[in-house]
Amino acid sequence: MAVTFVDRVVLHLSAGAGGHGVASVKREKFKPLGGPDGGNGGRGGSVILRVDPQSTTLLEYHRHPHRKAGNGAPGAGDERNGADGDDLVLPVPEGTVVKDRSGQIVVDLVGMGTEHVIAAGGRGGLGNKALASARRKAPGFALLGEPGEDVEVVLELKSLADVALIGFPSAGKSSLVSVLSAAKPKIADYPFTTLVPNLGVVTAGSSRFTIADVPGLIPGAHEGKGLGLEFLRHVERCSVLVHVIDCATLEPGRDPMTDLDVIENELSLYVPDASLGGRPLSERTRIVVLNKADVPEARELAEMVKPDLEARGIEVFVVSAVANQGLRELTFAMARHVDQARAEIEAEAAAPKRVVLRPKSVDDKGFAVTKENGPDGVFFRVTGDRPVRWVRQTDFSNDEAVGYLADRLGRLGVEDELFKAGAVAGDTVVIGATDDAVVFDWEPTLQAGAELLGSRGTDLRLAESSRPTRDEKREAQRDRYAARAATQEELEAERRSGLWHLAADSDDDA
């Protein structure tokens, strides 16, 4: 049988990687060294979950669970930045709950148009134009783009209905939905006819609410028996629970009181997500519907057990979905309880909430250095967002880029913390907390060959000397004229004194 409804999937999502920056030098005619002009890489595309009114199931993600956003383009010379990667927007039904693999709720997507960035794209690397500064005029390197996030999440669809119709299979829940609303669920005379939750919209006077037909529950549903465990999650958001009890069943051991007790036990054993703000199912408003009263024996049984159920403080209605009996009273009773539940929710939302601010500690350095024992001996691990990000951006085939990384780590205070932790030259240092962490032998002062040409990121050929002022130029010109005149006078004095003479055999006109 083809699958047409899916309310739980596991998604493998990958955001796009950022484009690499480029190291380039501007070259024009008569300007062979015009300075750095490398552009930045583009941002990687993000994966976004967005509530879409046209989406009703997670079937598409069941068929294609692996999704990836676009990568950012690399930069280019002449200060041209790379294009950003395309974001991947995944439409999901309203009421979708996103969890990580450990079961912790990441986000609850409620409200049309609500969206959440589930996997952020990587930052683009800076080109050498953006890395240039007053002290670093000619960087010979650029930063690499960061990889995008890879996440694995679980999507669970929990229907947003006000009223849930629950009960044993073939109790008449689908029939009630079909006569109370415009929904047309499948109806047949065999158990487990309903395989997916059916939603319908009901109007009672000025009230308008939705009801959900939850697939039949049986004993052990909270443990996965039957279809109950798969669809009990659709009851979590419902404010009113309506027990639909079959008074015309001929199964042995079945009667209205027993059916109610069995379903109530299953509801009490099911634990909803407390982080969603939902109360335990046992605390929800209850209504009991004694169905199939068009059968004479069923009506007699319903009238017999009704006083016992009302003695428990439960509102009871004797109805017949087929004969359309008692439905108006039931509809207005559900509307009354729904309006009351909505008023309570609005009051809670309007109540002032205390905002707790947790600023960072003054001595928070943004990283941590720990001493650990590994298979090859003791090593030191550096963790923190900035050190890990800087390592990912570094091109280790470029000595100047490696030196730039060393400068950044030194200014951050990583070397000082390594000294405090007991590290000495030659010890193994690991930057990162994952398997792809960078491992190197630590040297307190890391230097690259580029420093021999001057400060890191400088080029002596691009060093600018101070430009003389107009008065300084005039003074220099006067000094040159005076020096020339003094030289001429000295030569003329030597000639007159006879120090210069012509050879005897030379021609006077020579």
Question: What are the salient characteristics of this protein?
Answer:
Spo0b-associated Gtp-binding Protein, Chain: A; alpha/beta; 3 domains; Rossmann fold; 6-stranded mixed sheet; 510 residues; GMP Synthetase, Chain A, domain 3
The fold-level CATH name of the largest domain is: Rossmann fold
CATH superfamily of the largest domain: P-loop containing nucleotide triphosphate hydrolases
Report the sheet-strand fraction. 15-25%
Q: How would you write the strand order of the largest sheet?
A: 10-11-9-12-13-14
Tell me the number of helical segments per DSSP (H or I, 4 or more residues long): 11
Shape: elongated
The CATH architecture of the largest domain: 3-Layer(aba) Sandwich
Instruction: Tell me the major beta sheet.
Output: 6 strands, mixed
Strand tally: 18
Radius of gyration: 40 Å
Tell me the series of helices and strands, N- to C-terminal: EEHEEEEEHEEHEEHEHEHEHEEHHHEEH
Percent in helix: 25-40%
**Residue ranges: pLDDT <50 for 5 or more in a row?**
187-195, 221-229, 446-453
Return the structural class. alpha/beta
Count of domains:
3
- pLDDT averaged over residues: 81
Measure the end-to-end span. Answer: 120 Å
CATH top level label of the largest domain:
Alpha Beta
